[in-house]
Amino acid sequence: MTGAPLIEVEHLTMRFGGLVAVDDVSFSARPREITAIIGPNGAGKTTVFNCITGFYKPTVGRLTLRADREYLLERMIGHEIGQKARVARTFQNIRLFPAMTVLENLMVAQHNKLMRASGMSLFGLFGLKVYRDAETAAIDVARSWLERIHLVADADRPAGELPYGAQRRLEIARAMCTEPQLLCLDEPAAGLNPRESADLNALLVSIRDRDGVGVLLIEHDMSVVMNISDHVVVLDYGRKIGEGAPADVQRDPAVIRAYLGTDESAADA
Amino acid sequence: MGPRLQHHLKDAGLTALVAAGLAFFIVGFRTYDIGKGLTFDYQFVDLGIAVVTIFFGRFGLSLAADGLSWPALVLGAVMGMIGLAPLELPSTFLHWFVTLGGLLIVLRTIWPWANHALAVARHSPRGVPVGQAAARWMGAALLAAAFVLPMTPIADQKTMDLAVLILTYVMLGWGLNIVVGLAGLLDLGYVAFYAVGAYSYALLSTQYGLGFWSVLPLAGMMAASFGLLLGFPVLRLRGDYLAIVTMGFGEIIRLVLLNWVDLSNGPAGIGSIPGPTLFGAVFAETAPEGKQTFAEMMGIPFSGNQRLIFLYYIILALALVTNFFTQRVRRLPVGRAWEALREDETACKALGINPTNTKLTAFAIGAMFAGFAGSFFAAKQRFISPESFTFIESAIILAIVVLGGMGSQIGVVLAAVLLIGLPEWFRDLGAYRMVAFGLAMVLIMVFRPRGLIAHREPSVRLHPVQRRGSA
Prior knowledge:
The complex is a heterodimer.
Chain A lengths: L6 E10 L2 E11 L4 E5 L6 H8 L7 E7 L3 E3 L5 H6 L3 E3 L12 H8 L1 H7 L4 H4 L3 H20 L15 H13 L5 E5 L7 H16 L4 E5 L3 H7 L2 E6 L2 E6 L1 H6 L1 H8 L3 H5 L1
Parallel strand pairs in A: 3-8, 3-9, 6-7, 7-8
Antiparallel strand pairs in A: 1-2, 1-4, 4-5, 9-10
Helix pairs in contact in A: 3-7, 8-9
Chain B lengths: L1 H25 L2 E5 L4 E5 L1 H22 L3 H16 L7 H31 L7 H19 L8 H26 L8 H18 L3 H23 L4 H21 L1 H4 L29 H5 L5 H27 L2 H11 L1 H6 L4 H27 L9 H14 L4 H17 L7 H15 L24
Antiparallel strand pairs in B: 1-2
């Protein structure tokens, strides 16, 4: 690991009453890289995400984002992490705005930028040019993302009517419309067929290479993890049990044990 | 055909039997107070007519459901005619009952046709969704009708009174639509802000002699501040919890007004509130010292209707301002954020939208329009008391928004006409009009569960629809 990390997670612990969901986990993710967090069900992956994106307040630990400046994420409240530190995320069970159109979903994502341009709505209310220009620019941003996820023709359809795979892509595009410094994706490939999964890989690689955004990824689909991630962190029962390049992690006996299970004697070793 | 007909007849007979059993004690007897106690009278003719109507009603509905449209239509028409005919039925209600029964059969019969026609129309080849085009066309037509209404011969005092009342509810519905329809915050205490606006004007005008036009913005601000005040602590609650707290707030405001006699004069209310003026001219038969009446200013004879027509145009203008504002804000980032919050608050947070501030703006703006409407109400009634601001008002306004179709502006108008206008027009029905009101609500919810106008027009489009510039 060389170079300054984009996000540094140090001694992260999250307790819910007596349950320790995440236990002293430390890792870091570098800019312009895809870092995957893997592990069996209930390993605490989503909890780590929820801590990073402000949905949970960590019991112990420090979360540092180093981008345009340094942010201590554990001290920021909910929406500020999206607004100021610009950490965007998607959800395991898709959370679009179903009754709003595809385009509107992408416009809502540019809320803070547009809110400033509309002078807290005053300029917008009187239809000043400042705001109209900002809106046109925002529509252009949305259009370019729609082109990248092949949804231009569906722009004016309610997002809830889209097929499942398209909704997944739209959620990623929506997160990207916030111009994030770190993108957190919670199982983006869940429920996708192999072709859609391959499309997703291409999209994520282009987000890393073309947009230069660091991606943090929770995934079960090993084809996604092994093909595109630069760094893999393995969690099991809330602890980190391995870390490294995908090929190395694949050979790590501790990881294999966690995934495949072993007999008593091997577990004692 | 034979066995099916027999089956329908048997079914109708069974229904009539059940109805007769249920209605025997409810309709068949009537108690009278004769001073020393109660006695009762028999009303078996009423009962008989009702049961026969139910028999034929059920039979007609079965025929319609079975696809025997023509016999059903004929039966419905005959029942409608009997109901409307100047027969000597024991009560007016029975006339209505028979007529509505006939109407129901006819509606049930033509429903599949109408549905089919609508479905065909919806897929019109021109690319403009028909519902949307119809809504726009209907909006323009309603607006034109609203403008010319006072000049038409039907504009007598009763009609104008009703029109002012309906428009007040349209405005309140549009105001609440921002909170409930757009931001998705279930507010059961909207009447509180209406009361704040009304008392602001009543107190400022009677105590400090301020005029309607100068108080109007103040009343709006006052109500908006109350909205903020309430919003800060409660907007972290969601759904049902928020509804209960807002309902409590509505009651608190009413109870404060009732008990803080020094400020509000308690249950006795505030009277002799001055009405609105037009360029300083008052709408009354004689002007107070140093003022002139509208009739004098225009050099026309005085008539009581002038005041009503003036009030009508004020509320029309206020309502249109509310509508214009909402339409405009819906296309701004804050309006989109409201709708996004309604759809998914968690996702909003993840996108860096401040949910508390966004909800607060919706709440305060909604309250502001209620404040405007409230001060108009005080100026129109000239007398207000806490009794005008009970929970039922909040419930009616909410019903207007929900029945109209959450977030639909034109739907609110239709629902207001239906919910406020119909009960007034059907005053002949007496105590039964609330039954008719309930029936109308149930029918709407059965046939249009998402409200009268469920269509949602996108706030922005990538592909402009034909005959329209880009949004």
